[in-house]
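Input record, target 12 of the design panel.
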């Protein structure tokens, strides 16, 4: 099997990988498209000690599902947390925080940057016929963006700022726009600003971020400095939602949390059905976020392109 292999902070193409075999309750999925995200890039920097096939954003086709043949031939996306179903987190309906979880392409489970992957059929979601592969591959990050709206009650008219307009920031902005909030995005690069303006979203430069003014600030910069900027921008008793995962230590003045009584919310994976619904109804249109497509044998070049400043979505096409 052909795929990308991560080991010791290096990504390399391999054509000698063993094709995965589905275990009980699992499906074998042929990957059609897979996207490189910020977490994949941070794995190279030691964010988590992972060795294997990275990648967790994908759309594919089920080749085999021994325990549930009805899945065969269906086009699918998949949730990335593989859970035990019996631990205290699972019993409390917090499966994405399962004590024994594996995470596709991140923790103890080879991922989507290869010709095939396996996932439990319980993790799979069928892709509506009208949703293209190039939209469906964004289902996982869009679900993560929608998690913000599940964790924070955002009302029409609330002043909301997204800091960072890269891959996840763009999707988060489109998701938040559906709430009717008074949305602004701080974007650094011209291409990012152009995409947002084309969708009618208000854009400012980072230097224009006001102090202590926003009801909700979503930090999606992918940088260690983003939290400090968010804490400065949010109003007293406002809420900061932290989406960035990066290696190393984050430096921020946490006394602001106490003095200004700020609520800090960590936000990770989110719901797939509403993400697919938004894609089907074209309430979110991610096609413009695709910057480049690479074959899997170009793995190193693809990661270099995705790591460039201001880069948007880089895809592997199988």
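The sequence produced for target 12 reads:
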């Amino acid at each position: 099997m052909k795929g990308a292999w991560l080991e010791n902070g290096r990504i390399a193409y391999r054509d000698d990988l063993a094709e995965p075999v589905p275990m009980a309750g699992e499906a074998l999925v042929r990957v059609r498209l897979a996207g490189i995200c910020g977490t994949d890039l941070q794995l190279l920097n030691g964010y988590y000690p992972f060795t294997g096939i990275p990648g967790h954003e994908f759309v594919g086709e089920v080749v085999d599902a021994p325990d549930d043949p009805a899945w065969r031939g269906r086009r699918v996306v998949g949730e990335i947390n593989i859970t035990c179903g019996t631990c205290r987190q699972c019993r409390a309906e917090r499966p994405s925080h399962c004590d024994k979880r594996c995470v596709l392409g991140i923790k103890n489970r080879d991922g989507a940057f290869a010709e095939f992957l396996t996932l439990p059929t319980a993790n799979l979601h069928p892709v509506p016929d009208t949703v293209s592969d190039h939209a469906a591959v964004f289902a996982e990050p869009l679900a993560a963006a929608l998690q913000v709206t599940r964790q924070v009650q955002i009302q029409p008219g609330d002043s909301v700022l997204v800091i960072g307009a890269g891959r996840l920031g763009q999707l988060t902005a489109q998701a938040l726009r559906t709430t009717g909030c008074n949305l602004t995005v701080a974007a650094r690069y011209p291409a990012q600003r152009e995409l947002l303006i084309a969708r009618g979203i208000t854009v400012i430069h980072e230097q224009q971020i006001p102090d202590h003014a926003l009801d909700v600030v979503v930090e999606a910069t992918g940088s260690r400095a983003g939290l400090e900027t968010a804490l400065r921008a949010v109003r007293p008793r406002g809420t900061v939602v932290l989406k960035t995962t990066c290696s190393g230590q984050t430096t921020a003045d946490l006394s602001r949390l106490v003095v200004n009584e700020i609520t800090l919310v960590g936000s990770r994976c989110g719901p797939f059905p509403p993400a697919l619904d938004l894609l089907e109804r074209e309430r979110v249109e991610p096609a413009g976020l695709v910057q480049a497509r690479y074959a899997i044998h170009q793995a190193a070049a693809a990661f270099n392109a995705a790591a460039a400043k201001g880069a948007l979505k880089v895809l592997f096409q199988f």
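The chain has a mean pLDDT of 94.
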